[in-house]
């Protein structure tokens, strides 16, 4: 494990917000949180997450629910296609006899992009794979002082390779959550580098303009 990885993991273990989906590796609970957190703030998600689990404590229970009930429980969370997809996926998981056990299987589920599949495979399955969302992309682009748009071409390949290299075999899911947490709390749009546990390794900070990364190229 590199010093950077050890420093960020230590910070995460000490300071991470105690969110309910971080206390479990139950695929149903982790997956539900990932779907709810797409486009929605943590504080908004928390009561919905608790209510959903009280109403449907297992994927089998959710799969057996009526679509109208699921949509009613989702009311207020927005982006209702997520509720439809959630219900569909629950039915599919039950029909296939259970949750995937590796990245390729997660990726094959409808609606599972690279990020979500990586998050589930690492957090639930302990697989050594990255999970690159917008927060992670921003943090890694700054650590590397990455030239170019990390969503495209050579810069994207460089960032993805770096993301994959960093994941420690001993704690892949925790690591992915730690990078996300850094991006969500300290390394936001205006980074607070004075509070950052990995400032010593940050090329963006060393260059004097960390907020200049990631370099987005307008489409
Ligand atoms: Fe982000 Fe600043 Fe930390 Fe670099 S030093 S990772 S820019 S918060």
Describe the overall structure.
The model has no long low-confidence stretch (mean pLDDT about 95). By secondary structure, the protein is mainly alpha-helical. Helices cover about 60% and strands about 0% of the residues. The protein contains twelve helices and no strands. The chain starts with a helix and ends in a 13-residue tail after the last helix. The radius of gyration is 18 Å and the shape is elongated. α8 crosses α11. The chain has helices at about 5-15, 25-35, 40-55, 60-65, 65-75, 80-95, 105-110, 115-125, 135-145, 155-165, 170-185, 205.
Rg over CA atoms, rounded to whole Å, is 18 Å
Main sheet overview: none
Could you tell me how far the N terminus lies from the C terminus, measured between alpha carbons in angstroms? Answer: 38 Å
Please bin the fraction of helical residues.
55-70%
What is the general shape? Answer: elongated
Give the averaged pLDDT, no decimals: 95
Question: What's the multimeric state?
Answer: single chain
Structure summary:
This protein has 219 residues and is an all-alpha fold.
Describe the structure using short key phrases.
58% helix, 0% strand, 219 residues, binds iron/sulfur cluster, mainly alpha
